[in-house]
Amino acid sequence: MTDALTLAKAQEALQELGLNRCVDLLAPSAEWASENDATYIGFLVRLLESEIDERRTRRLQAKLRAAHFPYHKTLADFDFSFQPSIDERQIRELAHLSFVADGHNVVMLGPPGVGKTHLSVALGLEAIAQGLSVSFVTMQGLVSDLRRAHAENRLESRIKMYVKPKLLICDEVGYLPLDALDAANFFRLVSERYERGAMIITSNTGFANWGSVFGDPVLASALLDRILHHATTINIRGNSFRMKDKLRSGLAQSHVGVVAEQATE
Ligand code: ADP
Ligand code: MG
């Protein structure tokens, strides 16, 4: 049995080395070692692994906080049978994240509620689980942040901050049209990340409308040129998951139904 003075000395040394988890687990690990006839090395491995585990968890939690996801939903939470226009195999392939390693992009297009944000978050969570840095922004949040930085003469450093994460998720492109400054700032960011860092972009608006979203067809085409050079585009056509229960009870018509009806009017 280790005497109290020796234990305290060892704890102090571990503390000085910054091995806080080892401090907490030293006594129980020593007890475990004597109860299980563990070797000295076996004891040391157990102690150090607990420190490594704790640090890994803390790093992941810090990455999760820094990502600013609107919610935490995974691929396991996604009901692929509800959205047959999505190729499940393609999404599972994307979840291997070679597009992030290659600095390529994913563009998700589709009407509201079909799972664009959910799938983006799910891929972002996979990236974080692999130890990659991720940042989630909405287009509105991004352009208003860059606009503020521009006004305060610190656009350069702000753009650098958005270039840093291995994966930048930019949600809801096209929900609101942009003015010239916002469009130019977004273009700068995309140009800086081009072939350097992966992006996931979601939009409810087809590429043909991006000219009016960005208020400038030339800029929109240069932007799309960069975004789509190395990109996987996922076109989701289907009903809003938010309407699922209403659809089931017959309270709402499906998008498909509504569009079909309008077309015959
Ligand atoms: P949008 O395409 O507008 O970004 P979201 O991804 O935010 O839509 O989806 C709206 C809500 O419905 C979210 O709570 C999301 O988790 C849920 N959802 C959407 N599609 C599915 C699905 N196929 N399976 C499970 N949940 C889904
Ligand atoms: Mg969304």
Automatic annotation (TrEMBL):
Keyword list, A-Z: ATP-binding, Nucleotide-binding
Domain AAA+ ATPase as annotated: residue spans: 102-235
Entry keyword Nucleotide-binding: yes
Keyword check for ATP-binding: yes
Pfam family, one: IstB_IS21
Xref: CDD domains: AAA
Entry similarity comment: Belongs to the IS21/IS1162 putative ATP-binding protein family.
Protein name: DNA replication protein DnaC
Organism: Alicyclobacillus cycloheptanicus
Species lineage: Bacteria, Bacillati, Bacillota, Bacilli, Bacillales
